[in-house]
Amino acid sequence: KSVDYATSGMYRLLENLLQWSQQQSGKIKYKPRTIFFEEMEMEILQNFQVPAKLKGININFQYDPRIHFFADQDAIAMVLRNLVDNAIKFTPDGGNILIKAKMNATDFTITLTDNGVGIPSHKLPYIFDISNDKSTKGTQGEKGTGLGLMLCKELVESNKGHISVESLVGRGTSFNITLPMTEHKSTILN
Question: Which residues neighbour 78 within 8 Å (Cβ) at sequence distance 6 or greater?
Fold first, then answer.
């Protein structure tokens, strides 16, 4: 099963490289639509249930099932895949990952929090910048390229959003994705 996870990791790396090259060449055609957050939960569980189980990591969700937002589904799904993959990589066996989604008066926020190894404060300013190769090995020696987080930033910004990170070494990391909300974009259905 660890071979399957390694294979899926290589697939995600190739997917990131392809997405990044298309992003840089302007070949990506964004197709925003209404997305129910429940769709994101199903995709995450489908992609990461096995690797999380291998490390004994619990992935939990907290959101109102009526929540939906307006964005390019492929872009936001790729962002979440990269963030969950990193959370699993940097969370020790038996850890927890919590993914929350909520609506505020002006925006929609997805927060992904883990209780992993955390990121040193001197690395935080460069976390989304591939030109500063600050990639760190995961808890089981997993390697990273730094491309995933840079791509996350570009994809979130392409959807007129913002991504930020907070972290404490030994306590964990929290990524926040904020997407704009307008009358015709993010709402809660009654």
Answer: 15, 16, 19, 151, 152, 155
